[in-house]
């Protein structure tokens, strides 16, 4: 948060259980809540000059129903620069698109993920609405969950992807490391889909914003009366994922005692719900995500050595988007294709100048941020292609940039920084890397398109020092 004083959010909702949940999650992020049951009461509060002004507003679509967009417009007129979050139970992006066009800053889908709510709240106040081009969104774009969805030709990314495809066939616990937004959850889903467990369930446990006791209950389940507030029995994610895979997001957020317990479960396959007199055996593959690999986290004292040992150095590191700049253009086109397939949106192109702008930015939020920025730009674009004008906040940050180079455009650079031609060996290596990335690592197709045999291709990979996953 920017300061130590809790920020005020005005929540327009009337569901008591939902209000309690949002209040608890927001409180952990340093926000305090004021709840009103209808839009008219909220508008009066915004107009009252004697009342404390909220720093953000959240509207439950259930309150206004079909009049949600009209109410959002009234909120926007009353508080032009206040971040406005729209909460909806609809799985279709159409209502979210209409809400954004009416003036919503962001939207959240029910049930609310704790990480998503905290991310939305903290990001909502970092920029004024007039210049908030980088506001995060949670568009739910469905796609086939396989490795073909993982777009990129940069060597560090292709190496990580090849390792993921290899480990998908195994059963050992796996840690996927990387910055937020690099695609760790997507890779986990692809690994599960390509694994022998693909017919079994995949459960995902988001730990961000959860209290330690809540994490343990969510993981192991609990019996009725196991602790204050446990009014009914609940099965845990380990039991729900039996026969399949369980992804634990942000492994480093588990408290030390729970880390020891999880390590023991990984070793023995035995789990026991809170307050239970019995235990049960589970057959679950653990796919965990974290900011760093297990060895580094153990050295930093973030996770217990016994849990780090459970992963036995079995980890994959996903590179940040700033470290795979050559992938920004193909990722952009891929996201635009997915976004254009959503109800209420269109397929749009993008100019070279706009692509150069996207490539010039550092993307601290990685793939998640790139997708969010493109989604927002498409929502408000009335042309057939996105231009620099559709990314004003980026233009202010990146500044004036030159024309795109061949490498940035997805081609091959012929000249080096000194103005002289690069060696034939360097150019050939770039062409092969480009082909491997373009054809998603399908080596038979790569060889066919390059007009050479597979054996010749693998010999060249060896001679040029190229990882066959690159």
From TrEMBL:
Residues 150-379 form the Sigma-54 factor interaction domain. One of its GO terms (biological process) is regulation of DNA-templated transcription. SUPFAM superfamilies: CheY-like, Homeodomain-like, P-loop containing nucleoside triphosphate hydrolases. The modification 4-aspartylphosphate is found at residue 60. CDD domains: AAA, REC. It is found in: Cytoplasm. Keywords: Activator, ATP-binding, Cytoplasm, DNA-binding, Nitrogen fixation, Nucleotide-binding, Phosphoprotein, Repressor, Transcription, Transcription regulation, Two-component regulatory system. One of its GO terms (cellular component) is cytoplasm. Pfam families: AAA_lid_14, HTH_8, Response_reg, Sigma54_activat. GO terms for molecular function: ATP binding; sequence-specific DNA binding. Coiled coil: none annotated. Its main location: cytoplasm. Residues 8-125 form the Response regulatory domain. Member of the two-component regulatory system NtrB/NtrC, which controls expression of the nitrogen-regulated (ntr) genes in response to nitrogen limitation. Phosphorylated NtrC binds directly to DNA and stimulates the formation of open promoter-sigma54-RNA polymerase complexes. PANTHER family: DNA-BINDING TRANSCRIPTIONAL REGULATOR NTRC (PTHR32071:SF95), TRANSCRIPTIONAL REGULATORY PROTEIN (PTHR32071). This is DNA-binding transcriptional regulator NtrC. It comes from Croceicoccus marinus.
């Amino acid at each position: 948060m920017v300061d130590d004083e809790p920020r005020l959010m005005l929540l327009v909702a009337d569901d008591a259980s939902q209000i309690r949940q949002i209040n608890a999650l927001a409180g952990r992020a340093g926000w305090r809540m004021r709840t009103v049951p209808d839009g008219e009461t909220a508008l009066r509060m915004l107009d009252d000059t004697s009342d404390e002004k909220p720093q953000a507003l959240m509207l439950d679509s259930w309150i206004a129903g079909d009049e949600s967009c009209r109410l959002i417009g009234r909120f926007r007129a009353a508080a032009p620069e206040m971040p406005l979050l729209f909460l909806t139970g609809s799985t279709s992006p159409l209502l979210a698109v209409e809400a954004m066009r009416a003036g919503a800053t962001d939207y959240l889908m029910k049930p609310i993920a704790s990480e998503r709510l905290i991310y939305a709240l903290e990001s909502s106040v970092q920029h004024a609405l007039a210049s908030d081009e980088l506001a995060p969104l949670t568009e739910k774009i469905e796609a086939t969950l396989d490795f073909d969805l993982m777009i990129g030709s940069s060597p560090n990314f292709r190496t990580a992807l090849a390792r993921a495809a290899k480990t998908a066939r195994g059963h050992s616990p796996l840690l996927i490391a990387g910055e937020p937004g690099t695609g760790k959850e997507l890779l986990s889903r692809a690994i599960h889909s390509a694994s022998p467990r693909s017919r079994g369930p995949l459960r995902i446990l988001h730990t961000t914003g959860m209290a330690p006791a809540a994490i343990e209950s969510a993981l192991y389940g609990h019996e009725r009366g196991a602790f204050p507030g446990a009014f009914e029995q609940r099965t845990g994610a380990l039991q729900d994922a039996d026969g399949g895979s369980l992804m634990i997001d942000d492994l480093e957020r588990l408290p030390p005692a729970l880390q020891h317990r999880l390590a023991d479960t990984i070793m023995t396959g035995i789990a026991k719900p809170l307050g239970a007199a019995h235990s049960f055996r589970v057959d679950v593959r653990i796919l965990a995500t974290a900011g760093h690999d297990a060895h580094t986290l153990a050295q930093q004292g973030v996770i217990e050595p016994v849990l780090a040992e459970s992963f036995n150095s079995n980890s994959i590191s996903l590179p940040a988007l700033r470290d795979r700049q050559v992938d920004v253009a193909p990722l952009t086109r891929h996201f635009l294709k997915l976004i254009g397939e959503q109800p209420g949106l269109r397929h749009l192109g993008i100019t070279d100048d706009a692509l150069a702008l996207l490539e010039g930015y550092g993307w601290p939020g990685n793939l998640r941020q790139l997708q969010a920025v493109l989604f927002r730009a498409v929502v408000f674009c009335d042309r057939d292609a996105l231009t620099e004008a559709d990314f004003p906040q980026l233009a202010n940050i990146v500044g004036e940039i030159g024309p795109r180079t061949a490498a940035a455009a997805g081609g091959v650079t012929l000249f080096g920084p000194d103005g002289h031609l690069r060696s034939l060996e360097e150019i050939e290596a770039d062409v092969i890397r480009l082909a491997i990335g373009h054809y998603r690592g399908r080596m038979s197709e790569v060889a066919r398109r390059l007009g050479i045999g597979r054996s010749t291709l693998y010999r060249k990979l060896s001679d040029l020092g190229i990882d066959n996953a690159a």
